[in-house]
Amino acid sequence: MSVLHKVDVKLSGKSYSIHIGRGLLHSPGQFVPFSLKDRSLFVLTDENVANPHGLAVYEGLKATGARSVEILAIPGGEQSKSLSDFERVVSWMLDRDVDRQSVLFAVGGGVIGDLAGFAASVVMRGIAFVQIPTTLLAQVDSSVGGKTGINMPQGKNMVGTFHQPAAVVCDMDTLKTLPQRDILAGYAEIIKYALIDDPSFFIWLEGNGKKVCEKDPEALARAVATACRKKAEIVGEDEKEHGRRMILNLGHTFGHALEAATGYDGRLVHGEAVAIGTALAFRLSVRMGLCAEKDADHVVRHLKDIGLPTRIDMISPSLHDAKEIMGFMVHDKKASSGKIIFILSRGIGNCFAADNVRKDDLEAILVHSMKKG
Ligand SMILES: NC(=O)c1ccc[n+]([C@@H]2O[C@H](COP(=O)([O-])OP(=O)(O)OC[C@H]3O[C@@H](n4cnc5c(N)ncnc54)[C@H](O)[C@@H]3O)[C@@H](O)[C@H]2O)c1
Ligand SMILES: [Zn+2]
């Protein structure tokens, strides 16, 4: 076991640490900032992750002197972030001996993290939970910020809470079983932190991005630690998402609209939509005279080198209706008072929020990205 990085997150007067390393899964108790002795512990995981990762955590917890350890594996995928799965998880805990001292461990991607976090925040009026994210996206995104929630028929993440974990454990070894497409999708979120306000991280990624995507554990751990540190810094300035935190939406106004326009049919995973969205945000910034074309080219080249899509015409089959995509932007829940907020750029490492994008500029950028380039 080796801990390579530790990132301290201080939010709402509550602090916790993100432990990043290798082989950490086997002794999860070591990272929890209180004794697990005599407590009843719960491990929520999904069926794709249960063996070997969920079971490794389960076995590791049995050695802590806990009163009991229970494990539940639900089906993998976004459809498990539902009200009925929430009920199943809460009932599972209530039917066993959950009490205020119990701890829920989430072993899986963002779906398990969001569902477990939500259940932990309300069962017995709130118990401790520990995140053990097993996708790159969850390691760099869901492990900081304390957002929990489930999807409703009315929309994604419509019901949820803010509930900070007691600890987060990111074990690079869990990523060995993660499909390459999900590694790249996580990378799209990592590069976001560099583009927002950290040009030196961008330079590092240019030199080491390939290693990260080839799952080199040291490179991965450094990228995860830097991304988590950045997110913690930004979220710390704006915990409840009133202002500064919006900057994390770089590539997402476009990305969410592209995901919606494909009907979530598998043509795009979230990170791929964000990668195209990031390229579009830079192209739009160039068109508005804010950003030098060479910076946008630079970003697009790096995304391409890594193997991420950068244009709408790379979606297969592609999308052809710019107006339809724009329609989905208006419905994005982050559009405040009818105005669509875009994160634009004055250059690599210099992004800001704007609500004054003209429709014709937007349409021109979308149309251009749909033409075979
Ligand atoms: N709370 C937050 O701040 C936050 C931030 C970003 C995203 N999210 C949420 O996270 C979810 C997306 O997260 P995700 O991409 O991790 O999705 P996910 O949890 O559905 O995982 C993706 C797929 O990979 C599988 N998987 C997970 N780990 C694996 C591993 N190590 N090896 C093999 N397969 C593995 C899962 O079973 C699933 O099929 C969305 O619901 C999104 O809303 C939350
Ligand atoms: Zn995202």
Mean pLDDT across the residues is 95
Question: According to CATH, what is the class of the largest domain?
Answer: Mainly Alpha
CATH level-3 fold name of the largest domain: Dehydroquinate synthase-like, alpha domain
Roughly what fraction of the amino acids lie in strands? 15-25%
Please, how many domains? Answer: 2
Bound molecules: nicotinamide-adenine-dinucleotide, zinc ion
Could you characterize what this model shows?
With 373 residues, the protein is an alpha/beta fold. It has 2 domains: 177 residues, Rossmann fold; 190 residues, Up-down Bundle (Dehydroquinate synthase-like, alpha domain). It contains 12 helices and 11 strands. The strands form 3 sheets. Strands 1-2-9-6-5-3-4 form a 7-stranded mixed beta sheet, sandwiched between helices. A two-stranded antiparallel ribbon has the order 7-8. Strands 10-11 form a two-stranded antiparallel sheet. Helix 5 runs antiparallel to helix 6 and helix 6 packs across helix 7. The longest helix is centred in the middle third of the chain and has 21 residues. The N and C termini lie far apart (47 Å). The relative contact order is 0.11. The structure holds nicotinamide-adenine-dinucleotide and zinc ion. Nicotinamide-adenine-dinucleotide (NAD) binds next to helix 3 and helix 4.
Give a quick set of tags describing it.
2 domains; 7-stranded mixed β-sheet; 373 residues; alpha/beta; globular; binds zinc ion; two-stranded antiparallel sheet; single chain; Dehydroquinate synthase-like, alpha domain; Rossmann fold; 18% strand; 12 helices; binds nicotinamide-adenine-dinucleotide
